[in-house]
Amino acid sequence: PHAIALFDYQASQKDEISFQAGDVISLEKSVGSDWMIGSLGNRSGLFPVNFVDQPMPEMPAAASALVGPRCRARFDYDGGEEGDLSFNAGDEIGLIERPSEEWLKGQLRGQSGLFPASFVDVIEDLPPPETEAQMFFSSAVDPSLPHCLALHAYASETSGDLCFNEGQLIQLKERVDADWLKGSVDGREGIFPSGFVEIVKDIVNEDLPPRPSSSLGTVTALHDFPGQEASDLAFSAGDSIVVLRRLNASWLFGKIGSREGEFPQDFV
């Protein structure tokens, strides 16, 4: 894919390229909605997209944290009606529903609305339409067991976390602590923040068998952690740590022998 320069551009940073109006630039990838990486001759670098003609829609774009049904915008769309969803070329949009053949409903940056289907390329399509009863009593979630409804999409690159989209039903497995839950959806299992969901049927003691242990497992230290606060658990690389609970997305609470304390997850 390539683009033709509409105006002269003089690079102001080392990682940018300069060009003149009329130059043909080979496109490599998008960097956000305002910049691209391309090459001209033996030079390669960043340049602003508004200095060239419309990028080729099939150009590779940066990876996204979105999972499930989603699409990528081919062109800018400025919704002119209430209930429309505006976006820029290259944006990835979570799909919610298909009201008609010509229109889609999606979510982007906390906003949801309608947009023309011809303005996007579908990456993962929505499942076939189901009746309301089929949608609620999906085989993926047993409504007789504890479950919750996702109020917001949750995307995480942390191993062991469960990612999901807004509106999905999640089977609840256990309460990790006051702020985190463990559940499963679409054959995947992991933990997620309780603030992202609404409990439909809560966990009670008789719903699940008793846990054999109060710990979440054992981890091995990758680096030395001297600890900076009295509540921290200091350790050396190679130490084995029993994880007692997760404090948040970045910190854990555990023990080594008789010592207990907090430590960063990235160190183990």
How would you explain this protein's 3D organization?
This is SH3 domain-containing protein. The structure is a single chain. With 268 residues, this protein is an all-beta fold. The protein has four domains: 2-51, SH3 type barrels (Roll), CATH 2.30.30.40; 70-124, SH3 type barrels (Roll); 132-207, Roll (SH3 type barrels), CATH 2.30.30.40; 217-267, SH3 type barrels. Helix content is 2%, strand content 38%. The chain is built from one helix and 18 strands. The strands form four sheets. The chain has a five-stranded antiparallel sheet, with no helix packed on it. A five-stranded antiparallel sheet has the order 13-12-11-10-14, with no helix packed on it. Strands 1-2-3-4 form a four-stranded antiparallel sheet, with no helix packed on it. Strand 6 (92-97) and strand 7 (103-108) form a beta hairpin. The longest helix is centred in the middle third of the chain and has 5 residues, at 132-136. The model is unreliable at 56-61, 131-139 and 206-213 (pLDDT under 50).
Individual helix count: 1
List unreliable stretches of 5+ residues: 56-61, 131-139, 206-213
Helix content: under 10%
Task: Summarize model confidence as the mean pLDDT.
Answer: 82
CATH topology of the largest domain: SH3 type barrels
The assigned CATH architecture of the largest domain is: Roll
Number of beta strands: 18
Cα distance spanning the termini:
43 Å
> Beta-sheet strand percentage?
35-45%
Structural class: mainly beta
Q: Would you state the CATH class of the largest domain?
A: Mainly Beta
Domain module tally: 4
Question: What value does the Rg take, in angstroms?
Answer: 24 Å
Major sheet size, sense and barrel closure = 5 strands, antiparallel
